[in-house]
Amino acid sequence: MSVETTATAAASGANATERFRSDKSAAAEVSTERVNALASRVVKALVDTVMEEKVSYDEYNALKSWLIKVGEDGEWPLFLDVWIEHAVEEVANADREGSKGTIEGPYYVPGSPVLETPATLPMRDDEPGRPLLFQGRVTGVNGEPLAGASVEIWHADDLGFYSQFAPDVPEWNLRGTVIADSEGVYQVNTVQPAPYQIPTDGACGQLIASAGWHAWRPAHLHLKVSAPGYQLITTQLYFTADEHLSDDIASAVKPELVLEPKDKADGTGREVSYDFVLASAA
Ligand code: DHB
Ligand code: FE
């Protein structure tokens, strides 16, 4: 099979790299003082590791060829979002009131179709997976309803594939921007996402296999929730009893973010409620 017909690391990595370049890299400005402080510390951490672990030339060269391969596979966004972003998110949102956030990950695409509540995410006629009704309310920290709040959702399909990062999935599949009603209430019909394995055939997969780790993230919904005058929350929601809640490769699970869906009374799948609380903009 060709790169076009399989979900290879190189294909999803190249897409994630391209996506990052077009959305985010231009905005990044860091002062000389901070670059000096941060780069010095990172280099020192590596040098300390070499000295303390007595790293050999074979190990040093293995690292060099691995770092080269991360770039060739386009996996820097994946590597950073899996192993580092959770700490950046923790620092960024340490003092924020309201609902918990967590990492964005590499597969967000801005500009998904705007849908009025009650909404159904774009999906294929024969979209596999158990139907899920996801609903709730968006308020401020004082309980004020946020009329017309935006609930942007994206998630993997029943096979663990994200649209625009895996071949043969329609462009906006399982991605949408749902507009809450005048009471801040939103309702979204979608399907239960599957647990997700980060690509195993590229450099990140090679690291995982070589270190004897696993590549799994628990099944999750990604969200960005916002309203004018309030701070946008980037978060994820997980599902109770998922075997990878306690050992997420991306360290992005928080106990407040675990949903417990129930069977719908009419037998058409499952439903769950989650209320978002947004902090006022600074
Ligand atoms: C990765 C994928 C995700 O879906 C996510 O939420 C975080 C990280 C990744 O492959 O790096
Ligand atoms: Fe994800």
Automatic annotation (TrEMBL):
EC number(s): the record gives 1.13.11.1
Q: Which SUPFAM superfamilies match?
A: Aromatic compound dioxygenase
One Pfam annotation reads Dioxygenase_C
Q: Which cofactor does it need?
A: Fe(3+)
Asked if Transcription is a keyword of the record, the answer is: no
Superkingdom of origin: Bacteria
Named from the GO MF annotations, one term is: catechol 1,2-dioxygenase activity
Keywords for this protein: Dioxygenase, Iron, Metal-binding, Oxidoreductase
Looking at its record, which EC class is this enzyme?
oxidoreductase
Describe the location of the Intradiol ring-cleavage dioxygenases domain by residue ranges.
134-162
Signal sequence region? none
- UniProt keyword annotation of Protein biosynthesis present: no
Q: Which PROSITE patterns match?
A: INTRADIOL_DIOXYGENAS (PS00083)
Q: Which InterPro entries match?
A: 1_2-CTD_multi_dom (IPR043029), Catechol_dOase_N (IPR007535), Cchol_dOase_actb (IPR012800), Intradiol_dOase_C (IPR000627), Intradiol_dOase_core (IPR015889), Intradiol_RC_Dioxygenase (IPR050770)
Chain segments carrying region Disordered: 1-24
Which residue windows does the record flag with biased composition (Low complexity)? 1-17
Q: Which family does it belong to?
A: Belongs to the intradiol ring-cleavage dioxygenase family.
Name listed for the protein in its UniProt record: Catechol 1,2-dioxygenase
The root-end lineage is: Bacteria, Bacillati, Actinomycetota, Actinomycetes, Micrococcales
